[in-house]
Write a structure and sequence with these properties.
D-Maltodextrin-Binding Protein, domain 2; 10 helices; three-stranded parallel sheet; binds arginine; alpha/beta; Polar amino acid transport system substrate-binding protein; Solute-binding_3/MltF_N; signal
């Protein structure tokens, strides 16, 4: 009888062990089914990138051999990443306020569009290591140089910002008594300012400088804004894709450190000066 109990106990423990083993097996196979984004990108041989090509020198359109082409430092940067990953890069151009929506809906693999990695956006997306961090600036007409010299001077004035950009927040928080005007595309903001239908606009410095070189009647105002150190440009990634993030981070980190990114910006700045179509 004792022996019998022992045998039963042994059999039971085997069953329990088998069940445990079975459990971990199930876990493994379900993990294999939800393929990593990095593997998926490598398998299809293509990295699909969401961008808003209205943001020289980071991404803009110009004629290359007579063909309308998306160019810029972000574009060169992603092409270099694609090369390192051994995949082709395909850009999907859209309005800026649609870029992160496209990423959320898995219509693109990553979003690269001079995107500031804000705490708010980090709730919904992961971000790569930061690669550029230009300060916020106010752009005005040269004819207002002597009157628009302080935040208060813009009270009640129309101040433009790109729709969906953090510049909307800059206007709301730092120019609270001005009238915010949200406009979908940066080149249209510039047109409105040139025409005087808005009085000022907020852009990050590098972009402001690029558009200014095409628009001799505009200038950067001598008004100090606060820029958030923690909101540098970064590549937006789907949440939880750690292997994709790791791979992109290591490539990007190297490009930041060896000066490639700065070189891409300098080159794109020259290209935008020469031949901006938008
Ligand atoms: N850095 C700003 C933001 O993330 C503006 C980015 C606009 N980018 C563009 N390609 N238009 O909100």
């Amino acid at each position: 009888m004792k022996k019998m109990k022992l045998v039963i106990a042994a059999v039971l423990s085997l069953v329990v062990l088998a069940a445990c083993g079975g459990n971990s097996d199930t876990k493994d196979s379900s993990a294999a089914k939800t393929e990593s984004a990095l593997d998926a990108i490598k398998e299809k041989g293509k990295l699909v990138v969401g961008t808003s090509a209205d943001f020289a020198p980071f991404e803009f359109k110009t004629l290359v051999d007579g063909k309308d082409t998306i160019v810029g430092s972000d574009i060169d940067m992603v092409k270099a990443i694609g090369e390192k990953l051994g995949v082709e890069v395909e850009f999907m151009d859209m309005q800026f306020d649609a870029v992160l929506v496209a990423l959320q809906q898995n219509k693109v693999d990553i979003a690269v569009s001079g995107i500031s990695a804000t705490a708010e956006r980090k709730k919904s997306f992961d971000f790569s290591t930061p690669y550029y961090n230009p300060p916020q600036k106010i752009v005005i007409n040269k004819k207002n140089k002597d009157s628009y010299t302080s935040i208060e001077a813009l009270n009640g004035k129309k101040v433009g910002a790109q729709k969906g950009s953090i510049q909307e927040g800059v206007v709301e928080d730092q120019l609270p008594d001005s009238q915010k005007v949200s406009i979908p595309r940066v080149p249209n903001l510039i047109v409105e300012l040139n025409q005087g239908s808005i009085d000022a606009l907020v852009l990050e410095e590098t972009i402001a400088e690029s558009y200014l070189s095409q628009n001799p009647d505009l200038m950067i105002a001598d008004i100090e804004l606060t820029s958030n150190e923690d909101e540098a440009f970064a590549i937006a990634l789907p949440k939880g894709q750690d292997d994709l993030k790791k791979e992109i981070d290591s490539i990007l980190q190297e490009m930041v450190e060896d000066g490639s990114i700065d070189q891409y910006v300098t080159d794109a700045m020259a290209l935008a000066d020469k031949n901006t179509e938008e």
